[in-house]
């Protein structure tokens, strides 16, 4: 084989790896889009109680968010390839199981396990990017593809979810995802670079000594309890008064305080610390995590309330609503390509600021929209603009965060990013629900379920999304101005 043939084969292999990694984030968003459209029908067919109707949506993020750091740490020890393939296989199996669910308990349980399977894939995918692609253009494009797969997958999921729900059944959204997942698993097993062979005793020894297990327990416990309370709030705000939820909320902050003290002690003694406290003293790291939290909270809430607006206020069918989301995957793909090609040429803070302004305009347009207006007058532009901020933030944030962790801890780095983004999604959904419901309840409309009353609350939710992105913008201008260009090729 000639050198030219080797280069061509290498490029094909890298392209397949890029596709597999992008799919690991795209599949979750695809299914989120399917569920967003199908949940009213799913609730009827599976007899989901009113207070649990949003749990098939939120429990995925809950399970994923509280296991990401653990899976990232284990990935650094046993190898990212093994972890990624295990996650792909579990995700395929659990996705198919979701489509076969016959009652409330089954769909919630299988969505939970799907979230855990995703936590196998997401941190290890970040590790694989850093292992396969050297710093430079290919790594930047891969991170951009991974980020763009989220709005693209969500948009396609909503469209196909609307089609399936109105024809052959919502179950086929899960079946299709499982089938594609299986083929991606085969491709990944064929093309991903092999993990260096290590003796079993060495692996067990590293698992025992190289991972901050107590830090993991404290961090995961904090995230699990906080995420549970937040998920419960999205179903019924009155549950916050229940003693069990108050107790869990207090305990979650006790775990957080204990985690901060513990990792500080580990760092002082020179022992493994899950997320060293010194990292938070780095202005760039703290600011980018805050920005990821805010942008993902706004992005997720925007998509959910745009769906409510199209269906509950304008009275569109699920399929008609899904078609109105089509601009999002298109702009997501375009933003991906642009950011991936330009991230090493333009300062990272400029990318974050400019793309965030575009997303802020999307929420602003939906906050001032008149339901009687044509789709093309306002909603189309809002749908087209919304994914841009998340795409720009995803690429810059991943490149910045992974550069701050040593090569042997890239799984933890991926876990940190995805934990912050998943928590942002959950918190954003809970807070916008609280705001929308309270504003609607206090409105002057007698019928609180009328489109007019609902729209008052939805406007408040979109204004809150604007506030989140503006807060992110202010922090970016202050805290990211010295990060310079990210994703530069190293000589």
Describe this structure in words.
This protein has 491 residues and is mainly alpha-helical. It has one domain (3-479): MFS general substrate transporter like domains (Growth Hormone, Chain: A). The chain contains 18 helices and no strands. The longest helix is centred in the first third of the chain and has 43 residues, at 3-45. The two termini are 28 Å apart. Keywords: Membrane, Transmembrane, Transmembrane helix. InterPro entries: MFS, MFS_dom, MFS_trans_sf. This is Major facilitator superfamily (MFS) profile domain-containing protein. It is a multi-pass membrane protein.
The third-level CATH topology is Growth Hormone, Chain: A
Q: β content, as a range?
A: under 5%
Tally of distinct domains: 1
- The CATH superfamily label reads MFS general substrate transporter like domains
| SSE order | HHHHHHHHHHHHHHHHHH
What is the number of E strands?
0
- Gyration radius, to the nearest Å? 22 Å
- Please report the distance between the alpha carbons of the first and last residues: 28 Å
Helix content: over 70%
Subcellular location: Membrane
Keywords: Membrane, Transmembrane, Transmembrane helix
Organism: Aureobasidium subglaciale (strain EXF-2481)
Protein name: Major facilitator superfamily (MFS) profile domain-containing protein
